[in-house]
Amino acid sequence: MSSDDNRATSSASAELATGIETDTPEGEPLVRVENLKKYFWENDSLLDRLLGDEPVAVQAVDGVSFEIREGETLGLVGESGCGKSTTGETLLRLQEPTDGRVEFAGTNVYEMEGSDLTAFRREAQVVFQDPFSSLDPRMTIGDIVQQPLDIHDVGADEERRERVRNLLERVGLSVDQLDRYPHEFSGGQRQRIGIARALALEPEFLVLDEPTSALDVSVQAQVLNLLEDLQAEFDLTYLLISHDLSVIRHICDRVAVMYLGEIVEIGPVEELFEDPKHPYTKALLESVPRATTDERERDRETLAGDVPSPRDPPSGCRFRTRCPMVIPPEELDIDQETYRELMTVRERIESRDISLETVGDDDQFSVEDGSVPEADIPAFVAALKRRLFDEPLPPHHDEIVETALTELAASNWEDAAAILRTEYESVCERDHPGLGNNTHSVACHLYGTAADSDSAVDPNSWRG
Ligand SMILES: Nc1ncnc2c1ncn2[C@@H]1O[C@H](COP(=O)(O)OP(=O)(O)OP(=O)(O)O)[C@@H](O)[C@H]1O
């Protein structure tokens, strides 16, 4: 686009000024999110209540706090289902929060009413992942981009059309295409239409929810570059939601890493990529697809296990059920890998996720009424141990595990779990680690409490 065109867009913008000035108090962030929570309730219908089913909370977002300064891009990254989109939608007030506070230019978003709320709806816009489903297939792209101006009654008819033409050109589309329909465009072009629509009201702040995930790799970089150019030109502030670390690194100033509804690490993007602290961040960075088979093996190890359900998240640190660095009790002499294995076995016993009937070869052991006959117990315990542990355990731990598995042979699941819990309980399951508010903060017991950013435990001191 030529500089003349740029000027044309800017002057059209000036003519159509919406009259809203976000007057962010000096030194204040544009967006401040404090302890934001969003729970979805299941089993909450009248029928469920009549049937006596208890409502269950899906804790999609569970106490996230962060700030975004004017002109900055904050990335929100994490595996699918960790609460990224819900965070974005709730802070835009597209969803009602369960708890917490969001300030936009110093004003509480959830207390806005009337003209304040209308102004916020203009200033804060969203670009969604799937440009096809977010564009009405029956509307021409001219009408789609103009729709926000019509809804907010901004400018006269011809002024609106002029602004639409300028916007389409600015995002790299031709004015000749104004009367075409979304299906006539490629994925990348459709995303450009979505961006033009989001910019129609001259917003200050955009939530970009996976803006390039649905696009071919070759087109992704073009759309990201466009977003960067637009940010510089229109002084935009971005919250960029993505599960793709390369997208985050390309465009963000800072990044917040989410796991199961919480932020576990936040910091400047280069620092976080070069010196990740949280074991989850490290695992995410290491699980980027690799070329060689050896390295692929390593990937599988780094992020093993399923993400627990947000309906019943683990106590303490939510990542501890998958964490390769879960912290053993201080006095315990054990290497890290063995401790991880023991914790996983205990978790499987706690959730009764071991099939006793299939222990041994070809129905070797009969499990009657849930119990193994007395005479078979030693062989049963030995077979179960072989199944659960890769390597023989050191003698002291072997003894403890045998006692626990002997309880299992009699179907005493709770006693078996209690034996292992007494011996192996970790600070990671007892205490919830806080995030703190340093420039680079991490919510992990390896790095001490939130107030004390110095490492309280040397991560290498007990690694095997
Ligand atoms: N309307 C809803 N009702 C019930 N649960 C929901 C609802 N919306 C989201 N969830 C749940 O909340 C959790 C967080 O979802 P969310 O879409 O915010 O995650 P995400 O990190 O954006 O994932 P993705 O990248 O797959 O979109 C998930 O477990 C999801 O199933």
UniProtKB/TrEMBL annotation:
From the record, what ranges are coiled-coil? none
* InterPro entries noted in UniProt: AAA+_ATPase, ABC_transp_ATP-bind, ABC_transporter-like_ATP-bd, ABC_transporter-like_CS, Oligopep_ABC_C, P-loop_NTPase
Q: Where is this region: Disordered?
A: 1-28, 288-319
Keywords for this protein: ATP-binding, Nucleotide-binding, Transport
Gene3D superfamilies referenced in this protein's UniProt entry, alphabetically = P-loop containing nucleotide triphosphate hydrolases
User: Which terms does the UniProt entry file under GO BP?
Assistant: peptide transport; transmembrane transport
Q: Which Pfam families match?
A: ABC_tran (PF00005), oligo_HPY (PF08352)
Give the Gene Ontology MF terms in alphabetical order.
ATP binding; ATP hydrolysis activity
Q: Which family does it belong to?
A: Belongs to the ABC transporter superfamily.
| Protein name per Swiss-Prot or TrEMBL | Peptide ABC transporter ATPase
